[in-house]
Amino acid sequence: xxxxxxxxxxxxxxxxxxxxxxxxxxxxxxxxxxxxxxxxxxxxxxxxxxxxxxxxxxxxxxxxxxxxxxxxxxxxxxxxxxxxxxxxxxxxxxxxxxxxxxxxxxxxxxxxxxxxxxxxxxxxxxxxxxxxxxxxxxxxxxxxxxxxxxxxxxxxxxxxxxxxxxxxxxxxxxxxxxxxxxxxxxxxxxxxxxxxxxxxxxxxxxxxxxxxxxxxxxxxxxxxxxxxxxxxxxxxxxxxxxxxxxxxxxxxxxxxxxxxxxxxxxxxxxxxxxxxxxxxxxxxxxxxxxxxxxxxxxxxxxxxxxxxxxxxxxxxxxxxxxxxxxxxxxxxxxxxxxxxxxxxxxxxxxxxxxxxxxxxxxxxxxxxxxxxxxxxxxxxxxxxxxxxxxxx
Length: 392
Description:
Blueprint: E1 3-6, E2 17-20, E3 29-33, H1 38-58, E4 62-67, E5 70-76, H2 82-87, H3 98-108, H4 111-114, E6 117-121, H5 127-133, E7 138-143, H6 148-154, E8 163-167, E9 176-181, E10 184-189, H7 212-226, E11 232-237, E12 240-246, H8 251-267, H9 271-274, H10 284-294, H11 299-303, H12 321-328, E13 334-338, H13 346-353, E14 356-361, H14 368-377, E15 381-384
Helix pairs in contact: 1-7, 3-5, 5-6, 8-13
C-alpha cells in the first residue's frame, strides 16, 4: 500500500488528508480494523517508537497509552500487586500476560487522561491484553501483530469500527525527517539517541548509590520524555510512569503537573479510596471521575447532598488535607526525569513532595550548583545526562 487516504486531518474541515512515504515506498502498516484518522496515526506512530525503545532498553514487553501526541502512561510488563489490580479495576481471578501487565500499568497510571487513548504495544497482542483493552474507552491499538483470539476480541469493539493497526517491526525510517509548517519545510536528523546505562553514569550528587531498579526507572523516564511534547517531566516508580507533565512553557509547571498526577496515583491506593462504597453497576469512567474529585480540592462537589447519592450507597468521609499529606509522606523511591535542565531548585523541592529519590536531567543550568545542593539536602541521587530531549 503506497498511501492511505484519511477521513480528514486534525479537524473535520482540513481536507484532503492522507499518509504516505515521500520515497513512494510501501507503507509499513496494515489496517486490520476500523478507519484510523490523522491524530490516531500521530499517536500510533509516536507510541510505537516509545514501546519499541522501552523493550530494547529493558528486555521486557512494553505498552503506552497515548493522547494528543503525548503519553498518558507508559510501562513495562512487571507483575501487578493486589493493590494495583484494585485501582486498575482488574478482577483478582483474571490472568495477565507480561504484555497485559504492561498495558494495565500504562492505562492505569492516569486513567482520566487515558480515556479515549490510542494504545501501542511492543509485542504481538495476545488474548490476555485484548481482554484488558475490551472494556476500556479507547480509539485503537498498534502492535507488530495480533493473535487470532486477540484480533477477534478487538474487532468487536465499537461495533467493528475499533482501529487495529499492524506495523512492520523491521521497518527503519530514513535518517532525515521532514515537517512542513506554513508551507515551509523543516529538515532534521532523527532523534536516535540510545538511552542506556552509560548515559546515566555522570552522578553529580554526594549520594551515588544507584540501584539497578533505579537505573531501569531512569531509562523509562527518559525514553518516555523522548516522545512527550516539550517541555516535559516524568515521574516513574517500579517500572511505570506514574505522572507525566507535558507541553508546559515553564519547567516548574511541568514538575508540578507530573507531581500532582503521581500524587493522585498514590492517593488512589489509600484505604479510604479503595473502600469507597460505589453504587452497583456504575461505569468505569464514572468511578474514575468520582475518585478524581474525591481526592482533589473540589471533593465537596461530589459529597454534597443530592450529589453523592448518585455515586455512592452511603456518604463517604472526607479525605482531609492532613490525611492526604500523611499518606503521601509514605511515597518514596520515585524517579524523576526531565527533558531539559532544571533552572531552579524549586523543581527539586516539588519533586521531593512526591517521593522522588532519583533524578535524571541534562544539566547545564547556570544554577546547577544550587540544584545539586538541594538534592544533597535530601540525599537524592542525580545524574546529568548532558543530552536534551525536546520533542515537538
